[in-house]
Design brief:
alpha/beta; binds zinc ion; TIM Barrel; 14 helices; binds 3-methyl-2-oxobutanoic acid; H-NS DNA Binding Protein; 394 residues
């Protein structure tokens, strides 16, 4: 599956790894907690979607979390299983016991975190980080390393820190935009700066929070600037305003920019919906890609366009992600929408019937009434039966 919108210039079609952290950062959504069996169900769904890595949890958090990570590592084989660990040997030992493929080590690098949270010097942070990387590598683990609050870290120090981490054996480096303060052009500058100043064989990743609503844009911008991996969560679950939403990032990467991912797009909507059901998390109707309105059309001009050729008002066909187009009738509708609905109900759209139905619907809309699908069916039934005087539908 290539890009839907051919993007001039992107001839390389680079592969971008997807690390899903719904089960770790996503679970840090205020008020959200998964039981171990729910975590396993979600991990199996993410495996079905074919994400490259699943961050299954933070084993040091609780006994249940440890059990869940261990169970996921045992049951899931199609995606790399990752455990989050602080830079200490006890956390890494727990991850080793869970038999995961990779550890996601992290330590803060910004002065504000070092001074007020960890109360250690830069050199001490570096010493702990190197020890943790070497220890994890000595256990044969893949090492992903996040510099927490990278984006508020002085750049020359960040590059020196990352260089030492790569020298110690880390496989992937992650720029964590912990409080979501980046914007796309700045993120690109930072990604290029790290790639130019940190030598060695590693994949550069980004982890974007959505505090200013730019997590998706920042993730995409990072990929354009050369990052080879992005961290995401289903529907952007996560701390505060959440993380970069998986469904937005992967569809934009693949269908707008033409990068390759391993995602099985036809399963995307279903997997997101199931995960959100398990999380008991409701999303707004206008949520990109997976919201109920993402492929719904009401206004007359749009419905006319869609009926003639869906590309007029849809950036990608909904079927690509396992969704369906909806034609919604309301105050803004025109005759094409009513004809379409009548036809789909097996009723021939005679012009005078269409006009009567539209008149009733617009009157109701002007009164501010909510027009549901049942209301429409009732109106159509009454008008077709020649009973339009009774159409003061409640
Ligand atoms: O936002 C963050 O900095 C994190 C780290 C653990 C990578 O989630
Ligand atoms: Zn985070």
């Amino acid at each position: 599956m290539g890009s839907y919108i051919a993007r001039l210039g992107n001839v390389e079609s680079r592969y971008i790894r997807i690390l899903d952290t719904t089960l770790r950062d996503g679970e840090q959504t205020p008020g959200l907690a998964f039981r171990p069996d729910e975590k396993l169900q979600i991990a199996l769904l993410l495996e079905e979607l074919n994400v490259d890595s699943i961050e299954a949890g933070f084993p040091a958090v609780s006994r249940g979390e440890y059990e869940a990570v261990k169970m996921i590592a045992r049951e899931v084989s199609g995606s790399e299983i990752v455990a989050l660990c602080r830079c200490n040997r006890a956390d890494i030992d727990l991850a080793v016991d869970c038999d995961v493929d990779a550890v996601h080590l992290f330590i803060a690098t910004s002065d504000i975190h070092l001074k007020y949270k960890l109360r250690i010097s830069r050199e001490e942070a570096l010493r702990r980080a190197i020890d943790a990387v070497e220890y994890a590598k000595s256990h044969g683990l893949v090492v992903e390393f996040s510099a927490e609050d990278s984006t508020r870290t002085e750049w020359t120090w960040l590059a020196r820190f990352f260089q030492e981490i790569v020298n110690a054996g880390a496989d992937r480096l992650d720029i964590a935009d912990t409080v979501g303060v980046m914007w796309p052009s700045r993120m690109q500058e930072l990604v290029r700066y790290v790639l130019e100043n940190v030598r060695g064989s590693y994949i550069l990743s980004v982890h974007c929070h959505n505090d200013f609503g730019m997590a998706t844009a920042n993730s995409i911008a990072a990929a354009e600037a050369g990052a080879g991996q992005v961290h995401v969560t289903v529907a952007g679950l996560g701390e505060r305003a959440g993380n970069a939403p998986l469904e937005e990032v992967v569809t934009a990467l693949q269908f707008l920019l033409g990068y390759r991912t391993g995602i099985r797009f036809e399963k995307l909507k279903h997997v997101c919906e199931r995960v959100l059901e398990i999380a008991k998390f409701e999303i707004s109707p206008n949520k990109p890609i997976i919201g109920i309105n993402a492929f719904s059309h009401e206004s007359g001009i749009h419905v006319h366009g869609i009926i003639e050729n869906p590309q007029t008002y849809e950036p990608i066909p909904p079927e690509l992600i396992g969704a369906q187009r909806r034609i919604v009738i309301g105050k803004h509708s025109g005759k094409h929408a009513v004809e379409y609905v009548l036809k789909s109900m097996g009723i021939t759209p005679v012009p005078e019937i269409v006009d009567k139905i539209l008149k009733v619907i617009k009157e109701l809309g002007d009164k501010g009434e909510k027009i549901t699908e049942n209301t429409i069916i009732e109106i159509i039934r009454l008008v077709v039966a020649g009973d339009s005087e009774k159409t003061t539908v409640s």
